[in-house]
Amino acid sequence: MINGTLNRLTRDEQALLLEVLFSQRYALDLVSVEIADIENGSKPTDELVYKRLIALYDKLIDEI
Amino acid sequence: MINGTLNRLTRDEQALLLEVLFSQRYALDLVSVEIADIENGSKPTDELVYKRLIALYDKLIDEI
Q1: Which of A37, A51, B1, B11 has the fewest CB atoms below 10 angstroms from its CB?
Q2: What ipTM, to 2 d.p.?
Q3: How close B55 gets to chain A, by Cα (Å)?
Q4: Count of C-beta atoms within a 10 Å radius of residue A23
C-alpha cells in the first residue's frame, strides 16, 4: 500500500501533513472512508492492513 | 500546531494514516484547504508554517 509520492517526502513534510490532517479534523473521516472502500469491495487489501485500520479507527474515535 | 491526538499515535499508526491519505488521493486537497484557511484569515499561523505548506503544496502538485 506504500505510495511513491509518500516515499519522496521528507520526514518533516510527512509530519507537516499529519499536523494538517488533525488541524483540519479529517483523520477519522479519512480512515472511515478507507474502511468503507475495503468493506464494499472497491479497494483490495489484506487482513492485517484491515485490522490495523479498524484499530486506528477505534483509537481515533476514543479521542473525540 | 502540534495536536494532542497526533502525539498519542504510534509511529506505525502515523505511517498508516499517511498511507491512507495518499491511497485516498487527498493529500493535495488537504494542504490546499489549510492554505486557503490561512489566506482567508480563518486560521492563524506563523510565516514559517505558511512557507512550509506552500513548499509542500508545490512538491505535491509536481507529483501529479
Answers
A1: B11
A2: 0.89
A3: 9
A4: 20
Max CA separation in chain B (angstroms): 34
CA distance B26 to A55: 21
Chain B, nearest residue to A43 by Cα = B23
Q: What are phi and psi of B23, to 5 degrees?
A: -60, -35
The pLDDT tens digits of the residues spanning A30-61 come to 999 999 999 999 998 899 999 999 999 999 99
Show me where the domains of chain B are located: 25-64
State whether residue B61 sits within 8 Å of chain A by CB. no
pLDDT in tens, B11-43: 999 999 999 999 999 999 999 999 999 999 999
Answer whether A36 touches B (CB < 8 Å): no
